[in-house]
């Protein structure tokens, strides 16, 4: 288990406990986090699970696959710390990870 802190555009924080093996997207959807739409259900086909991962957590994650990196080019307002939350699997190294949820996914 690990805790993930989702932060909205107003700076409000929601703390969610993710199970081992669960993706950050699944934990967000299960917890009703607004802004993580995840239209494709994690199939790496929509980009609507886009989020920004704060440091130092970003550097602790495995780098994005070629497919994830390509999809990030099509999200709204991509940034160097953009990731697709459906591709991040919760594990102990990201305990306490802070994730900023974009205002808009479309
Ligand atoms: S849920 Fe569609 S790309 Fe992540």
UniProtKB/TrEMBL annotation:
SUPFAM superfamilies: 2Fe-2S ferredoxin-like. One of its GO terms (biological process) is P450-containing electron transport chain. Residues 2-105 form the 2Fe-2S ferredoxin-type domain. Keywords: 2Fe-2S, Iron, Iron-sulfur, Metal-binding. GO terms for molecular function: 2 iron, 2 sulfur cluster binding; electron transfer activity; metal ion binding. Pfam families: Fer2. InterPro entries: 2Fe-2S_ferredoxin-like_sf, 2Fe-2S_ferredoxin-type, Adrenodoxin-like, Beta-grasp_dom_sf. It comes from the Bacteria. Its cofactor is [2Fe-2S] cluster. PROSITE patterns: 2FE2S_FER_2. PANTHER family: FERREDOXIN-2, MITOCHONDRIAL (PTHR23426:SF65), FERREDOXIN/ADRENODOXIN (PTHR23426). Belongs to the adrenodoxin/putidaredoxin family. This is (2Fe-2S)-binding protein. It comes from Rhizobium tropici. The lineage of its organism: Bacteria, Pseudomonadati, Pseudomonadota, Alphaproteobacteria, Hyphomicrobiales.
């Amino acid at each position: 288990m690990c805790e993930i802190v989702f932060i909205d555009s107003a700076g409000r924080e929601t703390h969610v406990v993710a199970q081992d093996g669960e993706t950050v997207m699944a934990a967000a959807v299960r917890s009703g986090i607004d802004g993580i739409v995840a239209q494709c259900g994690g199939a790496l086909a929509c980009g609507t699970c886009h989020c920004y991962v704060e440091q130092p957590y970003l550097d602790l994650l495995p780098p994005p696959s070629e497919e994830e990196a390509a999809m990030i080019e099509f999200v709204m307002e991509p940034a160097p710390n953009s990731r697709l939350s459906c591709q991040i699997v919760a594990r102990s190294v990201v305990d306490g990870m802070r994730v900023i949820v974009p205002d808009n996914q479309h």
